[in-house]
Design goal:
about 400 residues; alpha/beta; disordered N terminus; P-loop_NTPase; nucleotide-binding; mitochondrion
Length: about 400
């Protein structure tokens, strides 16, 4: 499929080693269908898998120097850490693991925090929790912005450290993970909880938080407890320098752990459409009426006028009712357009050419649904960006892209 992915261009973005089968197929809130998944595997193989990769593999073409230095620092500090919190994205529990560090992480006291649980399907999440339990690995789904959720994580950490606390005056807890999984947001929540717990605290500090992967560029420590002293270190996310297969790279791109500019928004959107179509997800949207009423906000041009009040510190405000209604209407139109195109589709989503034609048709109807001018010079790019935003903010539903059925319990 998807010759429009641009084999030559994407090879420059992903220089991958294709040494094994796709690590995980896809499942969503509507179940697992192995026949429909085969269409996606074929599409990815045809559109991306025939590129000429280096025989010995290679690094993804996005590995900032500060992250390489951070990787070395993490390896050194792991030797001193008493406990590790490995943050992963709940939507890709396996694909968001840092494979380079797994041998060292597995040798430490560790809990895997599956962040952004509000974007992941809870039923499928339970299967992943059972999987990690079968591997004898502690795992807890969290929302890094929720104090109650982070509090439960800290309770697990403290429980696991009980046997160490009795004999060590100072304990070190490390937070690690790939870019943009929410490590810094988690650190901030931990620090807020620590400030309310203990009477004596050092000056309040914040980790740098941002929407782009790799935004935290140094290793900072936070004292969260006294007697014994417990320090939590925030470490920059380090993406594995060699992504094992193409689909893993696309999943990381879709969830934001790789910058959009590496792969291109249009290619990522095509992959998302392939995922949704091969799962039959749009067919379920006809009866889906439980969308959330918060999230994306669109501001009219009148609101962009200069106002001295704009200089005040930004604080989160309740969404404007008209903005919420607009977003809800927008999502409804997108879902209806997707439902109609797939319901009326006479081809076979397991056939790469048919799937490509369907996706091209959907780009056209999405342009209308997303209210993008027909003659816009970059209409296709605008469609891709808006459609990806709806997915990444949970407006299209709660998904888990990795398939737990493709994993083997580790003894």
């Amino acid at each position: 499929m998807l010759d429009r992915f641009g084999n030559k261009e994407i090879a420059e973005g992903f220089k991958l080693i294709c040494s094994r089968e796709t690590a995980g197929n896809l499942i969503d809130q509507f179940g697992n269908n192995s026949k429909m998944r085969s269409g996606l595997k074929g599409a990815v193989k045809k559109g991306l898998g025939e590129m000429g990769f280096n025989a010995g593999g290679g690094a993804i073409n996005w590995f900032p120097g500060h992250m390489a230095a951070a990787t070395r620092a993490i390896r050194d500090r792991l030797k001193l850490a008493d406990f590790v919190i490995e943050v992963r994205d709940s939507r890709i529990p396996l694909s968001s693991a840092n494979e380079d560090l797994q041998p060292q992480l597995a040798a430490k006291r560790r809990v895997i925090a599956l962040n952004k649980k509000d974007l992941a399907n809870p039923n499928v999440m339970q299967k992943w929790i059972r999987y990690f339990d079968s591997c004898k690995q502690d795992c807890i789904p969290i929302s890094a912005h929720s104090k109650s959720s982070v509090q439960k994580l800290l309770e697990v950490v403290e429980f696991k450290l009980k046997e160490v606390i009795s004999r060590e005056p100072t304990l070190l807890v490390m937070v690690v993970g790939v870019p943009n999984v929410g490590k810094s947001a988690l650190i901030n929540s931990i620090h807020q909880i620590a400030l309310s717990r203990f009477a004596v605290q050092e000056r309040k500090k914040h980790a740098t938080v941002g929407p782009l992967p790799g935004v935290t560029q140094d290793i900072a420590g936070y004292k969260i407890a006294h007697k014994p002293s417990i320090y939590v270190l925030d470490t920059p996310g380090v993406l594995v320098p060699s992504i094992p297969d193409i689909e893993t790279g696309l999943k990381l791109s879709l969830t934001g752990s790789v910058k959009d500019s590496v792969v291109g928004e249009e290619r990522i959107a095509q992959y998302l459409l392939a995922v949704l179509n091969t799962r039959g997800t749009p067919l379920h949207w006809k009866h889906w009426n439980n969308r959330k009423m918060d999230g994306i906000q669109y501001v009219s041009e009148e609101k962009h006028k200069y106002d001295p009040k704009d200089l005040r510190p930004n604080r989160r405000k309740p969404p404007n009712v008209s903005d919420v209604v607009y977003v809800e209407d927008l999502v409804t139109e997108v879902q209806c357009a997707m439902y109609k195109t797939l319901a009326e589709f006479n081809g076979n989503v397991e056939d790469e050419n048919d799937l490509e034609n369907l996706i091209e048709q959907q780009f056209e109807v999405l342009q209308k649904a997303l209210k993008i001018p027909h003659k816009a010079s970059e209409a296709r790019l605008m469609v891709s960006k808006k459609f990806l935003t709806l997915f990444r903010t949970g407006k299209l539903g709660r998904f888990i892209l990795d398939d737990v059925s493709d994993t083997n319990p580790v003894s």
